[in-house]
Fold this sequence. Notes:
Layout: E1 3-10, H1 13-21, E2 32-41, E3 54-64, H2 67-76, H3 78-84, E4 87-99, E5 119-127, H4 132-148, E6 152-160, E7 164-171, H5 174-182, H6 192-202, E8 206-220
Antiparallel strand pairs: 1-3, 1-4, 2-3, 2-6, 4-8, 5-7, 5-8, 6-7
Amino acid sequence: MTMFSFHLVRTSPITTIRAITRPPTAADTPGLLHAECMAAMRLGSPLLSPARFQARNLAVFAAWESEEALENYLAASPLGKRLAEGWYVRLDFMRRWGVISELPDLPEEVGEQDPTKPVVAVTLARLKHTQVPRFIKWGKPVERLVRDHPGQTLALAAMHPIRTVSTFTVWQSQQEMTDMVRGHTDMPDARRHIVAMGERNRKDFHFEFTTLRFRARSEHGSWDGRTDIVPVA
């Protein structure tokens, strides 16, 4: 079955820009199915600030034919060696909502869906350029909701200018994540996510969108001085 990975590494702006403009592909990387290379972004940060496009913080989300393929890439490729120096998680797919063309064959759901266990969530959104202002207007309150939620242990965004925006979150349990989505929290303006989804349903911001849930297989390295970011089930 397909295995996924998500990577964060501090590097030079040149390395980040090179990865964004020339990402690894299935044609040049054995065992790679698809990769998204993006600059990290702080959730809820002002639009015109360095935190909105962190050129020194590279985020990579990738799908692999096997764990061996990932290990070979991290050991042999120049970019892979750089990613191996950062923080990353190896992920087993659990559930999908929506679809993107690069990952068309994922089933809707696989295996156990225990609401009490930790979960990792990745969203990938391909924006309609004409809808960017609306996406920002309705998305910023949701960013702050996720950023400040006590149920997450890591929450950030990433972007590939101008087309792709992604979020990456680690939750103490699936229940806490789904409660946030449904507005079942004690936080102020708890329905921010529901309101944004209603606006999206009224007039879609994206031409492609997917939310993916994963179980962490293993965690490696550190990020911002932190280790053991993924809770132990």
